[in-house]
């Protein structure tokens, strides 16, 4: 599912059951991709609960850039991708959006406008490494929906406080990449995603759309 946004094309990889209980839309960090271990672990947890999962490669990454550029342009492109997914799945399927690092910031900033029911924020980068006195906590607090944060206790960007989100799961021994034990990331997300799963999970049928 290639989506042409105002700021360039985005690519969406879909895993979808026949009648999804919810739609989880995930995206990457600034210089990463949608195959990150923590994203895949959360994807698997959602699929086991009968959700559809869309992993979005944003326009700046498809263009080969490591820096996302303007937050306003990034958010605008993200909302256009969400709009395309909404048209595909319908407004009656609950939307949960999330991502890792910079992707978690995008998901928080756009949650209210996207009509999301919740946000999964993996490795939320609380403080810029080059300016540790600055905090991005307002992006968490102003999401307008409940946010689950999953961070490692050794993350050099810092760890949000318990009061900064609906739930903050801190994983021992993990750094910013959350790749030491991806299964623990999925386990942290699973109970929170379950609220949208209904009474049963459904087996998902992987679908690869877009790209070569």
Automatic annotation (TrEMBL):
Domain KANL3/Tex30 alpha/beta hydrolase-like: 23-178
GO molecular function terms noted in the UniProt entry: hydrolase activity
Entry keyword set: Hydrolase
Pfam families documented for this protein: Abhydrolase_11
Record protein name field: Alpha/beta hydrolase
